[in-house]
Amino acid sequence: MQEDEQGEGAGAGGSALGEPKGFWSQNILDYFLNTKQIKTRDGAEIIWYHRANSKQHMKEAIQSAAHMIEADVLLYDNHPVMAHPPETNSDNTLTEWLNEIKNTNKGIKLDFKSFLQAKSMGKLVGTHWRSHCFFAYLWLFLLSLEAVNPSMKLLGDLHLRQPVWINADILLGPKGNHPVDAKGFLDTVMSYFPDVTLSLGWTTGRMNSKCNTGYSLAMVQEMAELCRDCTQPITFAVRADLVCRSKSELLWLLQQSNRYTLTIWTGKNDEYSVDDLLFIRRSFDKCRVFYDILEPQNSEFRKAIGI
Questions:
Q1: CATH classification of the domain holding 282
Q2: What is the pTM of this model?
Q3: Do 49 and 64 meet the contact criterion of CB atoms below 8 Å apart?
Q4: H-run or E-run covering 255
Q5: Alphabetically, which GO biological process terms does the record hold (predicted)?
Q6: Exposure string over 114-135, b if 16+ CB within 10 A, otherwise e
Q7: pLDDT tens across 172-226, in order?
Q8: Domain boundaries, position 257
Q9: Is residue 19 part of a domain?
Q10: Under 8 Å between Cβ of 114 and 179
């Protein structure tokens, strides 16, 4: 297991832009326990509002019972906006979004995407998509990092006093493609906020119930190596229908540091059951797993575990 000691100065909770010391590196269970929003150190108690990008969804999220609000950031016309591919524009900018969220006691998770919709990409690379594929792939890396830099500056200007997670899929996972450039993303975020909680994942494709593929040992070892010198909390975003096939690999990953957790997420058409979620709960420490899952499985799972 890696050492988890932190030094003084910026590395102990501050930053060059001066985020409130401790808030952004605090375990969200501690934050929500201290603010009396949950009763136990159980990751399943945390309620998520997913894809709160538009102004309407943002307002719904603020008024909801959710503890953590997740939204997606893309760059449009040189400004960070809240949108999830294939959308490329929004009625909500990151500035507007943050100014609304900062007045709440909810945590936030900002998800940085690495691609545009096919239509926009087609305009950029023209009819010679195949021959220009490599250059488009490099351009996508640059695009995603261009969104990160101004977004970090906006975050620093607001001095939010609530949990902040910064998320990106930085490695290739099962059937995945086009991750965000790992080194560029980590270097950019940590140059602004050395202790902000990172949410790191693998790009994945849809699996069917007959597929036995999960996160391989090589995949989790690559992630562990990337995170080896990080000192802040890190949660690994893992797809629910892959976790049951990757128990030993993910247990190994969590053993590398007590700062590591898992965040279970699901795609709209993923094939998984409440029994799969219960298996995950039995297999991992309940204070080290969060469940950002869709309905109806979310309600059924919470009912099954008595929450």
A1: 3.20.20.190
A2: 0.84
A3: yes
A4: helix 247-255
A5: lipid metabolic process
A6: bbbeeeeeeeeeeeeeeeeeee
A7: 999 888 888 899 999 999 999 998 999 999 999 876 656 668 999 999 999 999 9
A8: 42-118+142-305
A9: no
A10: yes
